[in-house]
Design a protein that fits this description.
This protein has 130 residues and is mainly α. Helices cover 58% and strands 6% of the residues. It contains 5 helices and 2 strands; from the N terminus they run H-H-H-E-E-H-H.
């Protein structure tokens, strides 16, 4: 089951962060059709957010055809998203995790690491557009 996390400094609406995390979990194969999402009550207890925020996120996922609420049972994933090669994803996840550990060991904090990552991402895709 997915465990949601919030980034209060991101400027992204809370419900959109939940939707984005489901999208990412689907793209990485961490969620599959038939998997249950946490109940609104579970998410509220974990993140201390308004239940309507969770329900809004789940409604968005339903509108996209990615989830369906079953009364009295919960909300379930109904379809997956196209994935790239799972082996390539796993390889790069491991590489990125090792890089992050090295950055932390070097004394970099989350803001430093995010700035480096975002800059590298922009540079990489700017090169591809040229």
């Amino acid at each position: 089951m997915i465990e949601f996390q919030l980034d209060t400094a991101s400027g992204v609406a809370t419900y959109l962060q939940l939707v984005q995390q489901v999208h990412q979990a689907l793209q990485l194969g961490l969620l599959q059709p038939g998997d249950q999402l946490p109940t609104a009550a579970q998410v509220v207890a974990q993140l201390a957010i308004n239940p309507n925020t969770v329900l809004k996120a789940y409604r968005d996922l339903e509108r996209e055809g990615l989830a369906r609420a079953r009364p009295g049972q919960g909300t379930f994933i109904t379809r997956s998203l196209p994935r790239t090669d799972p082996a390539a994803q796993a390889r790069f996840l491991e590489s990125m995790t090792n890089w992050l550990r090295s950055a932390r060991t070097a004394g970099l904090g989350p803001d430093d690491i995010e700035a480096i990552y975002r800059t590298a991402l922009r540079n990489c895709f700017a090169e591809g557009a040229a």
